[in-house]
Design brief:
The protein has an 8-stranded mixed sheet, sandwiched between helices. The chain is 47% helix and 12% strand. It folds into 2 domains: 231 residues, Rossmann fold (3-Layer(aba) Sandwich), CATH 3.40.50.300; 176 residues, Bacterial polysaccharide co-polymerase-like (2-Layer Sandwich). Strand 2 and strand 3 form a beta hairpin. The relative contact order is 0.12. The longest helix has 53 residues. It is built from 20 helices and 12 strands. By secondary structure, it is an alpha/beta fold.
């Protein structure tokens, strides 16, 4: 019989270290596993977790992404429309005789931009738009002014609920701005004219005084000559000032001009269709990713072998692709996906118990499935040449009845109570006599005190006298503590984990129970999800075991004529 090497120690050493600690050390020494404590694994997201999260939470992410896009579309339907129209105004110097360039004339375009939204300009624009007084207050908030770089241009933009209103508002503000500049320039021009006129009036008065004084002087006197010279100088000054005054009055005022007329907007500027849809979709996607990550972190269910290893530190001994029937034990065909998985499990058990004098393995489901795995493991061991005894310690289960075709009335409880002899209750498995089944027996309510007595170890020792391997099918660890009660008579244990329904806490609780009695866990069997409501189990295209039906279940009465194994030398009454 071939034995496959198994990483990690399987028997208890002198130090009696907890099983998970042994497995962690073994896996680390071989460089195959990087086991982490479940609490660290539960609190940290790895890079691979994000891909797993997307695969598992894709429906939530997709739903929220679509919802975000739909909400954006709904907003576009109900949001008020806004239209924006733009006009460009070239700013020129208004100072008479100044250079037309705003840079050389000293025009500050930032100041001019503020002039567009000044109170006088807003009031003028409101008059041009013929707006009521209550709408004038927020008129400046609907105007924006920008200055393109390296230009003498102001871009005036106006927002309105209608396209026509936006166009008219932009034109009104451009006209109001130019009119404000024109008025300011005209006032400055008038101020200059008045200043020149004041100087003219002063010189004229002085000229009159000089002329009057000179008329009283002799014509050939030196004083008369000086007076005449003064009169000539004053006349020259008056002529110059008059010329300047006429020039100021004749200088045209050029506040600037509109170089781009306001156009009628063809589409609303707000809300922005592409931006709103992209923003809504992106927000929905981010919300989906966030909620999906929270759901993924809160979801403690075991789904894959990687989940099991990372969260609990338990290696996967085998993965069964087929579904398990609920509350029914079925033998899998030896050839097929399930059959190969059980062969792998058999090799792991035989290698793990190779150096042990007591070849006893406990199989317990976390939520269920332990009986089916234990029965198929016993059958696989028997096909490999072992003499196997299957102990159906789940006294409330139907394992023995499903395998033998009828429910034995006597069994484990009766032997432990001393009411029956061992050889009288052992029954060969129909079609596979190398497997003998020890049913639970009657009065299951007395099983707990009987299992805690020394008689259980004596019973297992007697079974080892007639068989090479003893497989104990224990109840689910989430339903009772009988698996922990049975563990001390076994040398190793196997856990059965149902994906999608078993949570990490349940697996760690099962490990803690076995660690408390210093029993190592060889690994976990990851089963297919239990078939509910009579769903059919996935069939494998393989020939059935001789004496078994096509679904792998042994029919009642088949092979029942096989003689039971001869009792061993230690087959005596249990005391």
């Amino acid at each position: 019989m071939l034995h496959s090497p198994l990483p990690g120690p399987l028997e208890r050493g002198p130090a009696h270290e907890p099983p998970r600690r042994e497995m962690t050390a073994a896996a680390t020494s071989e460089g195959e596993r990087d086991l982490m404590p479940s609490e660290n694994a539960a609190g940290a997201m790895h890079l691979s977790d994000y891909a797993v999260m997307l695969r598992r939470q894709w429906a939530v992410v997709a739903a929220l992404t679509v919802l975000g896009a739909l909400l954006a579309g709904g907003y576009l339907l109900v949001a008020p429309r806004s239209y924006t129209s733009h006009t460009n105004v070239l700013v020129t110097a208004t100072t008479p005789g100044a250079d037309t360039s705003s840079r050389q004339s000293g025009i500050n375009l930032d100041t001019e931009a503020q002039l567009v939204i000044a109170t006088q300009t807003v009031t003028t624009a409101a008059d041009l738009l013929d707006l009521p007084a209550e709408e004038v207050a927020d008129l400046a908030d609907r105007v924006t002014v920008t200055v393109p770089p390296n230009t003498e241009i102001l871009t005036i933009s106006f927002v309105a609920p209608t396209a026509q209103g936006a166009q008219e508002g932009a034109e009104a503000f451009a006209r109001a701005y130019l009119e404000t500049r024109r008025s300011a320039a005209a006032e400055g021009q008038e101020t200059d004219v008045q200043a020149l006129q004041a100087r003219i009036d002063a010189l004229t008065a002085e000229l009159q005084e000089v002329v009057s004084a000179g008329a009283a002087l002799p014509a050939d006197s030196p004083q008369r000559a000086r007076t005449d010279e003064r009169v000539a100088a004053l006349n020259t000054q008056l002529a110059d000032l008059g010329s300047q005054q006429r020039q100021v009055r004749a200088t045209p005022i050029t506040p600037g001009r509109v170089i781009t007329q306001a156009a009628l907007p063809l589409s609303p500027s707000s809300p922005d269709l592409p931006l709103t849809v992209v923003a809504g979709t992106l927000l929905g996607l981010l919300s989906g990713l966030g909620i999906g990550a929270l759901r993924h972190r809160a979801d403690d269910r075991i789904r894959t072998a990687e989940d099991l290893r990372r969260r609990t530190g338990v290696p996967t001994a085998a993965v069964l692709p087929g579904e398990l029937r609920e509350a029914e034990v079925v033998l899998a065909p030896p050839v097929g996906a399930d059959g190969r998985a059980y062969v792998r499990l058999r090799n792991l058990v035989t290698a793990g118990l190779e150096r042990s004098a007591r070849r006893v393995v406990l199989v317990a489901g976390v939520r269920g499935g332990g009986a089916t795995v234990a029965a198929n493991l016993a059958a696989s061991l028997a096909r490999g040449g072992e003499d196997v005894v299957l102990v159906c310690a789940d006294v409330h289960g139907t394992t023995a009845g499903d395998l033998l075709g009828d429910s034995p009335s006597t069994g484990l409880v009766d032997v432990l109570a001393g009411r029956q002899e061992l050889d009288a209750v052992l029954r060969p498995l129909p079609g596979l006599p190398a497997v003998r089944v020890l049913g639970p027996g009657g009065d299951p309510h007395r099983v707990e005190p009987l299992l805690q007595a020394r008689r259980l170890r004596v019973l297992v020792d007697r079974l080892l006298g007639t068989a090479s391997v003893v497989v104990i099918a224990a109840p689910a660890t989430t339903q009772s503590l009988e698996a922990q009660t049975l563990a001390p008579v076994a040398e190793a244990a196997l856990l059965v984990v149902e994906p999608e329904v078993t949570v990490t806490r349940e697996v760690t609780d099962a490990l803690d129970c076995l660690e408390a009695v210093h029993r190592p866990v060889l690994g976990a069997v990851l089963t297919g999800r239990a078939a509910r409501g009579g769903a059919r189990r996935a069939r494998q295209a393989a020939a059935p075991e001789r004496g078994a039906r096509a679904d792998g279940r042994v029919p009642a009465g088949a092979g029942r004529a096989a003689a039971p194994a001869r009792p061993g030398p230690r087959d005596s009454a249990l005391r």
